[in-house]
Structures are given as C-alpha cells and as structure tokens.
Amino acid sequence: MLQPKKTKYRKMQKGRNKGIATSGHTVAFGSIGMRALKNTRITARQIESARKAINRYIKREGQLIIRIFPDKPITKKPIEVRQGKGKGSVEYWVALIKKGKILFELNGIKKDIAKEAFRLGSAKLPIQTDVIERVIK
Q: Pick from 15, 16, 27, 23: which is nearest to 137 by CA?
C-alpha cells in the first residue's frame, strides 16, 4: 500500500479541503486521464483497489500512471476510550483531492478501452469522476 517512507511529523491536523486544483489538473504523461469532480479524501486502500481494477481490465497493456499519493496521516483513538490523553495513533493515509485533479492516466490504450477501464476504477473510489483527453498544443 502507498504511504510515505519518512515524514517530518508523525501526526497532522485535519485542515480544510476547499477550492479547485491549480496543479495536476491537465493530462501530462498519458493520452487520457480520470479527473475528480469534487473535493474529497481518498485512502491508500481505495487508490490500490482502483489501480488493480484498471490494470485487470487493460490486461497490463499500455501504461498506467498514478498522479496522486497519500501523504496525510489520519489518526483515530481506540474504541471505548475516554476523551483527553492526547491524539490517537495513525490508522491510515489519505490523499487530499481537489476538484479538477487528474487521478490516473493511461498511455498506449485505445480510447474506448481506457474509458471502460476508468469506469471500473472509478467504482472503487468515493468520488464522481469523468474522463478527459490530452489537449495537444
């Protein structure tokens, strides 16, 4: 599963996830990409599940590029523990996704196969997505 090898601080504050993506909002490495339509958090497990679904459909032809990385730790206290006594331990890692961010890209795959692969992959994610093609300048 995806997670950072090393971080400066073990735990983070929650923060807010507002606005639209200003970086990573164009297809850069592949020919077709999957774009997020809402702001959300996607866990490392969900990213891995979507990756497996896409790879299974394209039968490992072409190239799948993952454009997101879970680098924010989410903490949780154990069940039936009273409040206080500090912050809980790290349970899982998430990637903060803003509206318009490209999540996955495919290269070397026909358009209709890529669209179906992205449809299967997006079913594993807690977010609405659409398919966007690369704009050649």
A: 27
